[in-house]
Each structure stands twice: as C-alpha cells, then as structure tokens.
Amino acid sequence: MSWMPLVKVYFHTTPNSFKVALMIEELGLTPEIVPIDTRKGEQHVADFLSVNPNAKLPAIDDGGQAVFDSGAILLYLAQKHGKFLPADGPEVGEMLSWFFFVSSGIGPYSGQAVHFTRVHTDSAYATNRYTKEIARHYRVLDDRLGQSDWLGGPNYGIADIALWGWVRAAGFVMDGQGGLSNYPNVQAWFDKVNTRPAAAKAGDWAKKFAFKTEMDEAAQRAMFPQNF
Fold it and tell me: How far is residue 199's CA from residue 40's CA, in Å, rounded to a whole number?
C-alpha cells in the first residue's frame, strides 16, 4: 500500500492535539498546521466536518486520507512510519494496553474533571466522582512508572506520546489536588520526556496561534451545543 505525504493537521491547544503535535515532531514531519478555534465554533464548519464529522480536535488530512481521534492518528502514523510501536511479540500487547489506558481512562476522566470543577460546578456528586477517579488513574500511572522506564514498556512509544499531552495539563486538571506533587514517578517521567527535542518543538505549537480564551455563553454554545 502506498502512502501520501502528510498535508494538514487541524489543531487547538488541547491535550489531545498536543499528542499529535509531539508525534509529528518526533517523526520529523513538516505539515501545514490549520488552527481551529473551538470557542468560536470553527469545528462546526462544513469544511472541517468533512474531515471529522464528530467536530472534535485534532484531525489530519494525509493526502486526502482523513483521520480523526487522537488515538487513531497516533496509531495510523506509527504504523505508517514504522516507529514508536513494537513490530511484534509481547511488547505489542503491553504498549497497546497502556496506550488505550490513556485513551479510555486518563483522557476522558481528565476532561470530565475539568468540566465539573471549572465549567459546570452545580453537581457535587459529579465533581467528587471525576476528581476522585482522575486521582485513582494517576495512582495507577505512578505505580507503573515506578516499575517501568517508559509507560508502554522498555522503549519510548505511542503510550508515552499519548500520555504527554495530558500530563502537560495535570496542574490544571488537578489544581485543587496538588497537580503532580502526589505522583513523583509521573513527574520524573514527564521531566524525562521534556528533555526530548521533539517535546520542546511540540510545546511551541501553542505560540503559533491566538485562540479565544473567554468561556462566555457563545463559547459554551460552540463547545457544548447539546446543553442548549
């Protein structure tokens, strides 16, 4: 199967978008970065919906091949370029297990924790549930990273790339719980990833664009239209 060069990356300064930024920098690619301002509702424009009908960031257009969902993008690029994912053997299962732990656990619970502690704070039950669950997930991570050099096994890979996007936001997600101060192994791992040149380059993507920061009613309608 032939592959076309990567053309466009649709980006916002969200944890999931930064996963893809890190992957692209690790691979040494030079795509066109297309900013999508979600608080202005640009994710609902027809041109973007043709790439991701779910109206979420990030997404890519790889020579006419649309790929959306950050996890799918990382897997797609890892397989395409033959990097950051073991080719075979038991290490594949280990890497994928932790990769999907991030995708199905750390990501969604972090997002809900932020939503119910900063956006809609009127449910004590929801706030308690998601703050406690994200703390539990980080304890699992801390235990793992106390035993393994990298999240997905002995080598740096897509599990680490996926996690980095969310750990960048841990201080914000767990602001009332001390951020990473309770998870020294996660902190040490994060510091190690940040020594990689690709991490610095990916972090600089945030400086390229000015996105709307106000969470006013228009922004809430754009981001959570189902609530209105």
Answer: 28
Nearest-angstrom CA–CA distance, 63 and 17: 19
Please report which confidence band the pLDDT of residue 5 belongs to, taking 50, 70 and 90 as the band edges. low
- Cβ–Cβ contacts within 10 Å for residue 43, how many? 21
32-35 and 8-11 beta bridge pairing: parallel
pLDDT tens digit sequence for 118-158: 888 889 999 999 999 999 999 999 999 999 999 999 999 99
Question: Which tens digit of pLDDT belongs to each residue from 170-197?
Answer: 999 998 888 999 999 999 999 999 999 9
CA distances 72 to 58, 66, 75, 103, 145, Å, are 10, 11, 5, 10, 24
Same domain, residue pair 186 and 110: yes
Is the pTM above the cut of 0.85? yes
* CA pair distance 10, 55, nearest whole angstrom: 11
**Residue 177, domain CATH:** 1.20.1050.10
Give domain status of residue 186, yes or no. Answer: yes
Residue 140: per-residue pLDDT? 98
DSSP 153: B
Q: Quickly list DSSP for 32-87.
A: EEEE--GGGTGGGSHHHHTT-TT--S-EEEETTEEEESHHHHHHHHHHHHT-SS-S
Q: What is the Cα Rg of the chain in Å?
A: 18
